[in-house]
Write a structure and sequence with these properties.
By secondary structure, the chain is of the alpha+beta class. Helix content is 35%, strand content 18%. Strands 1-2-3-4 form a four-stranded antiparallel sheet. The longest helix is centred in the first third of the chain and has 12 residues, at 43-54. The radius of gyration is 17 Å and the shape is globular.
């Protein structure tokens, strides 16, 4: 068990699940616990989670355009061979993973083995109808919920 002084040092050096600095109070609340759990993951999984939260808040401008001021969304889509207007959740997840370039949610999800015990850094995906689907990156897991960061969530990157 860490004492409050060690917790404050940890908090001063780490960020929460939204990429914001932790509150330095010496208490292990949910955000500090998330950051501590993240440190127990492999370097590869930490890198995926950090890549996922890096663009939180990025939105299409104008809505529905697959455009943003820096051209990131179209860059993710083009690296995956997608067409203009395609949903970009899988292209964003592929960007976060860094090793796979797949633009379709179901295809990306099926690229990895299924699990009933998700872990931060995993791809979450589900079918939405027929051949369509939605996906994101798992950034946290508790007994009651799974937290994800997703592209194309209300036309942006959201947790």
């Amino acid at each position: 068990m860490l004492d409050a002084a060690h917790v404050r040092v940890f908090q001063a050096e780490h960020r929460n699940h939204l990429g914001q600095p932790l509150r330095v109070d010496g208490a292990i609340g949910p955000q500090t616990e998330w950051a501590m759990d993240l440190e127990t993951l492999t370097a590869a999984r930490r890198a995926i989670v950090h890549a996922a939260i890096e663009h939180l808040g990025l939105t299409e401008n104008p809505r529905g355009s697959n455009s943003d001021p820096r051209g990131l969304i179209w860059g993710w889509l083009s690296r995956c061979g997608a067409r203009p207007g395609d949903p970009w959740c899988a292209a964003y997840a592929s960007h976060c993973i860094g090793t796979v370039k797949i633009a379709a949610a179901q295809a990306l999800g099926r690229h990895f083995p299924a699990t009933t015990q998700p872990c931060a850094g995993d791809v979450m995906w589900f079918p939405t109808c027929g051949v369509h689907g939605h996906c994101g990156i798992v950034t946290g897991v508790s007994a009651a919920e799974v937290m994800t960061v997703e592209g194309t969530n209300d036309n942006g990157v959201r947790c």
